[in-house]
Amino acid sequence: MEMGSYESDQVYENVDIKQPPSRRAGAQHGESATPVDSSDRPAASCGWAVWLLIALSCLLLAAIIALGVLFYNLQAKNLELQSQYSELDRNYTDISATVSDFQTKNLELQSRYSELERNYTDISARVCEACPQNWELFNGKCYYFSTDRMNWHSSRDNCTSLGGHLVIIESDGEQMTDHRHRHSSTDRGLFSVQRFLSGKVTHEAKTSNEEEQSYWIGLTDAVTEGTWLWVDGTPLIGNVKAKFWATRTDGKSNEPDDYKGDDPAGEDCAQLVTNSNFNETWFDTSCTKQNKRICETKAVIA
Prior knowledge:
alpha+beta, Mannose-Binding Protein A, Chain A, 2 domains, eight-stranded mixed sheet, 12% strand
């Protein structure tokens, strides 16, 4: 029994029980192991959290400042835009008022234009109606150049039936009462009418291919030989007589000559014929001759 107990004790002595290195080292050096204080770990974690929170706060503050600056700039820009809008609105109001004023003036001008157009139409109609049909307007009077032929008395009566008379070249504005006024406006009017009548007669002669056209005028000395009277009883002025009677180039006496070779009664009526010199277009001839006629009447302008 003692041998068995001795062997078991020897076995346990040979078994090397493994211990932790630290404990073994301490044990080997005769030192005891110091326990680890677990309270240091939470303190380190809280420090990092504080620094992170401070950093986030700084970032947040910077963001707030940036947003504030941006908001201030946007607000200033908004105020500037509002000011510009107000100015544009005022300008638009002014432009609208100007456009409205222009439109009003345009309507007034259109109204005046329409009125002027109506007046022009009325005046044109009056001018066109100032003379009867187939009559020509000149210096406020109407003249009719016939195409058919009659003797002087029939021509006189025909003009009267048409509302006029055989043309009188020195009545009203054409009349000259004194030979000393030969350069007056009346004298110029007389020449103007004479030129118009002579030019018209010459033109008609060229148009009809006739060498000569003869037209009765309202002048006769049938009552008293040598005393020429217009159809309204006005005597022919001596100065006019010297102007428009033709001058003979064949050696015979000048017009009027009361030639009786064709009519024993002589030549008691005046005719206007074509001539290169419009101042010498009057000839006396027999009142029974068949001539065209020139009628005259006042123009009707309301």
